[in-house]
Amino acid sequence: MRFERVAGRVWVCAGDPDPDLVQAGVALVADERGSVLIDAGQSPSHAREIQAALRQAGLPAPRWLVYTHHHWDHVWGAGAWPDVEIVGHAAGAELLRAEANRPWSIPYLRAEVLRNRRLGPSFRARALAVDSWDELTVLPPTRVFTDALTLPTGVRLRHVGGRHAPDSTVVVVPDSGVILLGDSWYPPPAHLRTPADQPDLALVGRLLDDDIGWYVSSHSPVLSLAEARAALRG
């Protein structure tokens, strides 16, 4: 696990490509005034691996942690990040407050899968990701926004919503020509997906910008502007 520079001050640490592990990548916008971490990792142990990769790359520790959306593989590592302000969309804050009240444990996961078999892949991945349920803390954002927000380092957050998650947020770093898409254009999670659900290419099309050279999704390879346009053309 390591951080690689995308462009300018944006670095990405890719998740595990095995789809059964449901491990999202994270990004860091490095800044001496305080870096911005995009997503927290899928668990406390994953967050610690990300922290080790940060140190190995010589990157500054984050001051802000931004959630691209509330799904577990993006936020369950938050409790392992000390001294950060957690920023996220208001809709995600409400959902995470409910998630925080669930009795997360192996017996609870098993009971939920027996109630709804479609939860099986996601809940098996959670069981694999968490080393100790005693250390898992689901944390809602401590600072919320509704439409857009610019952090003091010039990082811009923009709510885009969509079918994958109602709180989906993209993160734009104008000086580096990078946009971090999270999972915003993906179809709904597997347990909510129908055969008609497809990636939301129209959303990506609306986000294409000649001033943005790089498009970073959480579970997909980084695309240049030219590659993104080619992908939309099919």
Question: Can you tell me about this structure?
Answer:
Helices cover 28% and strands 22% of the residues. With 234 residues, the chain is of the alpha/beta class. The chain has a single domain, classed as Metallo-beta-lactamase, Chain A (4-Layer Sandwich). The strands form two sheets. It has a seven-stranded mixed β-sheet. Strands 8-9-10-11-12-13 form a six-stranded mixed β-sheet. Strand 4 (35-38), helix 1 and strand 5 form a beta-alpha-beta unit. Helix 4 (106-115) runs antiparallel to helix 5. Keywords: Hydrolase.
Describe the secondary-structure layout:
Elements: E1 4-7, E2 10-13, E3 26-29, E4 35-38, H1 44-57, E5 62-66, H2 72-75, E6 85-89, H3 90-100, H4 106-115, H5 120-129, E7 143-145, E8 148-150, E9 156-159, E10 169-173, E11 178-182, H6 201-207, E12 214-217, E13 223-224, H7 225-233
Parallel strand pairs: 4-5, 5-6, 6-7, 11-12
Antiparallel strand pairs: 1-2, 2-3, 3-4, 8-9, 9-10, 10-11, 12-13
Helix pairs in contact: 4-5
